[in-house]
Amino acid sequence: MNTIHITECPRDAMQGIKTFIPTELKQEYLQTLMDVGFDYLDYGSFVSPKAIPQMQDTPQITPNLISNTSTKLLAIVANYRGAEDACKFENVSYLGFPLSVSETFQQRNTNASISEAFERINEIQNLCQKHNKKLRVYLSMAFGNPYNEEWNAEKVIAMAKKLYDMSIEDIALADTIGCSTVENIKYLFTHLINELPQIKWIAHLHSTPTTAYEKIQAAYESGCRYFDSALLGMGGCPMAKDELTGNISTETIITFAEKNNITLNIDKNKLKKAQDLATQIFNQYH
Questions:
Q1: Which domain holds residue 63?
Q2: What pTM does this model have?
Q3: Per residue in 38-79, pLDDT tens?
Q4: How many domains is the chain partitioned into structurally?
Q5: What is the CATH number of the domain that holds 200?
Q6: Which among 50, 195, 216, 235 counts the fewest CB atoms within 10 Å?
């Protein structure tokens, strides 16, 4: 399949910005991104405003986002209550839940243990099925962690198999701190795609600009066709030690696709408008 499906991630790009981006401007940017025609838009989150103040206006913005393309909206949730809130909106197609390979990060990120997180996933999956939504689970710290906790590929594969047994069909391998390498990207995606080909495997990679292209190439050559990215490479994890480590830029994926004659279902004219707006927003708010 000579195609790449992009999840554009403005939520990930904006959520760490301390200064509040006005709701009207945020909504304009999200609508512009929807018009580009990305396959998915990770646009907001239904979590406590105390946890992520920048995303507190997601419930206000959601009903105003109009899909003129095939773009599907994805919202992040961390518990059942957030999932209930997200399910109230008909135009939200996907809920995303962060499950960590690291016990420490799971507690910090969702105030729950890994075993409790699996219970939440089960409850949220049942809720999604009732409301005709899909659940995407992010395996964060999938390539290592900064806590000196034990990490190995077999642990990641075992967690993925458990999710498959729970009927989860979308799983993203998330490189939370930018420690993925060409070698471990190839190893994980090759093994997981071979063992669980029914799953939609997504690469959510963080990187410095110099290594982004080779990481995309490693995942693609291993069979991955779904990628998360953000325009201008904005956002990422505040725990990354290198300030240049952030989301893989959408522009780098586009460059990779063009060099390899890979189809992307995006409107280049609308993309330019979105890039201009992104530049304006992220220069003003950071």
A1: 5-284
A2: 0.95
A3: 999 999 999 999 999 999 999 999 999 998 899 999 999 999
A4: 1
A5: 3.20.20.70
A6: 50
